Amino acid sequence: MEHNIGSMDRTTRILFGAVTGLLSLAILASVISLPTVVSPLLGVVSFIMMGTSVTGFCPLYTLLGVDTCSASPQ
User: Fold this and answer.
1) Considering only CA atoms, which of 54, 56, 47 is closest in space to residue 68?
2) Signed CA dihedral, 22, 27, 31, 35: sign only
3) Cα–Cα distance between 33 and 47 in angstroms, integer?
4) Residue pLDDT, tens place only, 41-59
5) Which of 26, 42, 45, 50 could pair with 17 in a Cys bridge, judged by C-beta atoms 3.0 to 4.6 Å apart?
């Protein structure tokens, strides 16, 4: 697997994954009143975001031909 996630993208994914993970836990703890069905969905999103940021590889980016790893400011 070749890396296709750049550093800014990685940081964004980590932050988004952490926030969705915390929201998932807050729903389970009844701190936020949303349907409990939303909690596992947010948990899966969090897991995917954190996993792709750790590996530096996004399968969806490969399908779409996106590579933020080599993106340089113009």
Assistant:
1) 56
2) positive
3) 22
4) 999 999 999 999 999 999 9
5) 50
Q: Which two tokens stand for residue 54?
A: 């750790």
Structure token pair of residue 68:
């933020």
Query: What is the three-class DSSP state of 26?
Result: helix
Closest to 53 (Cα-Cα) out of 8, 19, 21: 8
With cut-offs at 50, 70 and 90, classify the pLDDT of residue 74. very low
- Give per-residue pLDDT as tens, 3-13: 899 999 999 99
Q: What is the pLDDT of residue 5?
A: 93
Q: For residue 48, what are its two tokens?
A: 């995917």
CA distances (Å), origin 22, targets 13, 44, 48, 52, 65: 14, 12, 14, 18, 31
Q: Which two tokens stand for residue 67?
A: 């590579």
